[in-house]
């Protein structure tokens, strides 16, 4: 076996030297002559000769080594997690790696970062939520989703809401060329205000098309004016209008009596995300308003109208994919009171 080990081209150098030492010793060579031929110290030859004599082939293997004792243990990990459950130092909004290391006093910040990464803890990321406390959440949500999934026959379902105070900001626009050759669009930090507009919008659930108009304010008067324009746009049709719980949307019984073909459906409290027009407002902000510059309020309004027209040319209805709508409270959540 030792001779085969010496002939094999994949034998490690350390194993090859140990095999040669034993084979030369079997030929009756002295320790010094073996050390000179193999290229090691005489004490190394003596070590492996005795190891082989005592243990045979197993003696030529390395003994298990304990290695360096870890500086940080599971106790350190528990200390980090326990510290994260406490409020950050006074004056700070959240924990950071250096703050944790400073509070622990005997833990290096690099280990803190490694521990956080291994446990997928992101101290900078933030999630927000709005939990509805509406006691009739299930019934209201089912009513709204039912209009999306199975709308009444020969009726029009509209999602209506306002996007208030859209600013006509004038910013200097341009391009920034980086040393690596990349070119980025950019804008200056300073700006000039040219007024604001409130956008009233209605999304037709069946087609995804938008009906929008501008107003200076968002009072009940402007809301009912917009509703009058919707009833004129769909004459002699039954309208089911989905609204959030804004005060101007409620207490309009007199108007509803004058328009018996219109029925209002309200989303649950703190659940305006059920209104599909909110999704479209997000699309409008991302595709049309973010990064744009306007020299006048009229230019802003024309810009939005042009986007609405282009959007309607390719509009498609949103598809409701969630199977169930229910209210589920967060379990084990922590609310820090300062």
TrEMBL record:
Pfam families the record matches: DDE_3, HTH_32
Domain Tc1-like transposase DDE: 157-301
Listed Gene3D superfamilies: Ribonuclease H-like superfamily/Ribonuclease H (3.30.420.10)
Protein name stated in the entry: IS630 family transposase
Organism whose genome encodes this protein: Bradyrhizobium iriomotense
């Amino acid at each position: 076996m030792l001779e085969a080990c010496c002939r094999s081209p994949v034998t490690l150098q350390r194993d090859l030297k140990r095999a040669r030492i034993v084979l030369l010793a079997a030929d009756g060579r002295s320790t010094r002559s073996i050390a000179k031929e193999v290229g090691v110290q005489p004490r190394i030859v003596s070590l492996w000769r005795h190891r082989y004599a005592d243990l045979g082939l197993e003696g030529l293997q390395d003994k298990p080594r304990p290695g360096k004792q870890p500086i940080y243990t599971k106790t350190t990990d528990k200390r980090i997690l326990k510290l994260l459950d406490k409020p950050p130092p006074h004056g700070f909004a959240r924990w950071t790696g250096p703050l944790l290391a400073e509070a622990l006093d005997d833990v290096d910040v690099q280990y803190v970062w490694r521990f956080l990464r291994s446990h997928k803890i992101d101290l900078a990321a933030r999630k927000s939520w709005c939990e509805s406390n509406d006691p009739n959440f299930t019934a209201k949500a089912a009513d709204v989703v039912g209009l999306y999934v199975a709308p009444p026959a020969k009726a029009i379902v509209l999602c209506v809401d306002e996007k208030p105070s859209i600013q006509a900001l004038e910013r200097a626009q341009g391009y920034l060329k980086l040393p690596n050759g990349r070119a980025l669009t950019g804008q200056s930090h300073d700006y000039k205000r040219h007024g604001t507009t409130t956008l009233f919008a209605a999304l037709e659930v069946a087609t995804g098309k938008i009906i929008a108009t501008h107003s200076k304010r968002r009072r009940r008067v402007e809301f009912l004016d917009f509703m009058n324009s919707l009833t004129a746009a769909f004459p002699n049709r039954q309208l089911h209008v989905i609204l959030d719980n804004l005060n101007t949307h409620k207490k309009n019984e007199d108007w509803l009596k004058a328009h018996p073909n219109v029925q209002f459906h309200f989303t649950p409290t703190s659940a305006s995300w059920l209104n599909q027009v909110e999704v479209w407002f997000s699309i409008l902000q991302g595709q049309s308003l973010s990064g744009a510059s306007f020299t006048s309020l009229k230019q802003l309004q024309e810009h939005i109208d042009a986007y609405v027209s282009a959007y309607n040319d390719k509009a498609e209805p949103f598809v409701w994919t969630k199977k169930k709508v229910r209210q589920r409270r967060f379990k084990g959540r922590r609310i820090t009171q300062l």
